[in-house]
Amino acid sequence: TMPFDFRRFDIYRKVPKDLTQPTYTGAIISVCCCLFILFLFLSELTGFIATEIVNELYVDDPDKDSGGKIEVNLNISLPNLHCELVGLDIQDEMGRHEVGHIDNSMKIPLNNGDGCRFEGHFSINKVPGNFHVSTHSATAQPQNPDMTHVIHKLSFGDKLQVHNVHGAFNALEGADKLSSNPLASHDYILKIVPTVYEDMSGKQRYSYQYTVANKEYVAYSHTGRIIPAIWFRYDLSPITVKYTERRQPLYRFITSICAIIGGTFTVAGILDSCIFTASEAWKKIQLGKMQ
């Protein structure tokens, strides 16, 4: 009996070198082939190393551990209003009504004491409401308070320092109302959108984006002109935006590389054999003509 030959399973049968012939066309195609494979390999590699950010929308309150609160950062300059007159008031639909909120806030005099920069860090409930910068908490109300202002920052929740996410996390940054009517009130109507960012490790950060519409007006009642204020009226969107950092799985990267190498060699082989067949046929025609 014949001994069992494991080599029968070889699907990559070897052709003896003396039965093959190299050609210049084959060499050119082979070099082009290798360069093309290298280019595609590097392209795939950069795609594999880079993270992509996928976003999705769903209805939920994402940050359930916050106790129904949202952290707010406000930084605003009023160049024509004394610091002793400036105050922050907070109201909402849960019955909160706070006049002259002073925790975690700071007032910095501007223009030799004629103006004021107010920086405040406070929390609001996750229900519609407003907070406003006004003279309501001052001991004596001024005759003509000047509410012209510049907003440096208004942001909610954690700060997301992520390059690939472009959103309206500080939509009011740089809002300049210095040329407005000094006696006008300002209304900023905000729609706050909860935003979750999940990095590669699965750690989540909770922030909020917002859109803003604004108007300014001089308000009157039956007793005369109402003292102006800068109102930030907010409402929350029930839709949450979630950004997730992802990286292409390794098996997909390997599959792509195999497809690139196999596909390129196959196409190049077809091309080479077509050229070779055509050139052989051409040689036969030439020989026929000579004879």
Descriptive overview:
Helix 1 (24-49) runs antiparallel to helix 2. The chain is elongated, with a radius of gyration of 35 Å. The chain has 2 domains: 22-52 and 247-280; 59-237, no CATH class. It has helices at residues 24-49, 250-290, and strands at 52-59, 69-78, 87-92, 97-98, 105-110, 115-125, 129-134, 150-157, 175-176, 185-198, 204-217, 220-221, 224-225, 230-236, 239-246. The chain is α+β, with helices and mostly antiparallel strands and 291 residues long. The two termini are 56 Å apart. The strands form 2 sheets. Strands 1, 2, 3, 4, 5, 6, 7, 8, 9, 10, 11, 14 and 15 form a 13-stranded mixed beta sheet that branches. A hairpin with a 4-residue loop joins strand 5 and strand 6 (115-125).
Which tags fit this structure?
single chain, 291 residues, 2 domains, two-stranded antiparallel ribbon, 13-stranded mixed β-sheet, 2 helices, Erv_C, Erv_N, alpha+beta
Task: Compile the SSE list and pairings.
Elements: H1 24-49, E1 52-59, E2 69-78, E3 87-92, E4 97-98, E5 105-110, E6 115-125, E7 129-134, E8 150-157, E9 175-176, E10 185-198, E11 204-217, E12 220-221, E13 224-225, E14 230-236, E15 239-246, H2 250-290
Parallel strand pairs: 10-14, 10-15
Antiparallel strand pairs: 1-15, 2-6, 2-8, 3-4, 3-7, 5-6, 7-14, 8-9, 8-11, 10-11, 12-13
